[in-house]
Each structure stands twice: as C-alpha cells, then as structure tokens.
Amino acid sequence: MMSYSYTSSGCSDDQSAVDEKKMRRRVSNRESARRSRMKKQKHLQELMVEMGRLEREKAEISKACTAKTLGHLALRSEIDALRAKKTALTHYLNNMDAALEGGSSGWCLVADGTAKAVEKPWCSRG
C-alpha cells in the first residue's frame, strides 16, 4: 500500500506541476495579449495623427491648386485680351500705312484716329 500512496503522491506532484505550468502559460499569454493590444492601440493613434497631418496637407495643396487655377484663368483671359488688342492695333497700323502711302487708296484718317475707307472726290474726278 505504500507504493499506492507513493504513486498517488507522485501523481499529485505531477498534476501540481502541470497546473502551475498552465497557470504560468495563461499569465504569459494574457501579458502577451495585453502588450499586443497596447501596441495595436499605439499604432492606431500614430495612424490617426498621420491621417490628420495628411488631411491638413491635402487641404493646403487643394487651396494652392485652386489659387493656381484661378491665376491661370486670369492669365489666359489677359492673354486673350492682349491678342485681341494686338489684332486691332495691327489692323489699325495697316490702315494707317495704307492711308499714308497713297492718297488715292480710298482711306481717310478720321478725327478719332482710325482710318476709314471713303470716297475721295478729288481722286475720282478726272
């Protein structure tokens, strides 16, 4: 009977060691899970901070893009106006040249500075 009690005592010691091992493993797993959650939360916070920074940067870029677009449109409008003015001045100069080159060309300088086609009675008479 002594061997039975020894066996029983041996099983009890083995069971205690197994229980203690399980308990240490549980504690270790809980601690590991806690560290993992903390790491995940820290990463999420870092991502939120980065997202805020990127949103601010996007807003600044969008604002700059809008300003550049408006500036571009203003310049295009100014270019169109200058081209129209150039065409008008070129036409005006051509008319002035024609009026100054030949008196019989049918052009006359008007008081507002423009050249205008008119019949010249002194040229049409023979």
From TrEMBL:
Q: From the Swiss-Prot or TrEMBL record, state where the protein is found.
A: Nucleus
Write out the GO MF terms.
DNA-binding transcription factor activity; protein heterodimerization activity; transcription cis-regulatory region binding
Q: By its UniProt entry, which CDD domains does this protein fall under?
A: bZIP_plant_GBF1
Q: Where is the composition biased (Polar residues)?
A: 1-15
* Signal peptide extent: none
Q: Does the keyword Cytoplasm apply?
A: no
What's a Pfam family in this record? bZIP_2
Q: Which cellular components does GO assign to this protein?
A: nucleus
Ranges for domain BZIP come to 19-63
For this protein, the record's InterPro entries field holds:
bZIP, bZIP_plant_GBF1, bZIP_sf
According to its UniProt entry, the protein's GO biological process terms are:
positive regulation of DNA-templated transcription
**Keywords in UniProt for this one?**
DNA-binding, Nucleus, Transcription, Transcription regulation
Q: Which PROSITE patterns match?
A: BZIP, BZIP_BASIC
> What name appears for this protein in its UniProt entry?
BZIP domain-containing protein
Protein source organism = Trapa incisa
Lineage, top ranks? Eukaryota, Viridiplantae, Streptophyta, Embryophyta, Tracheophyta
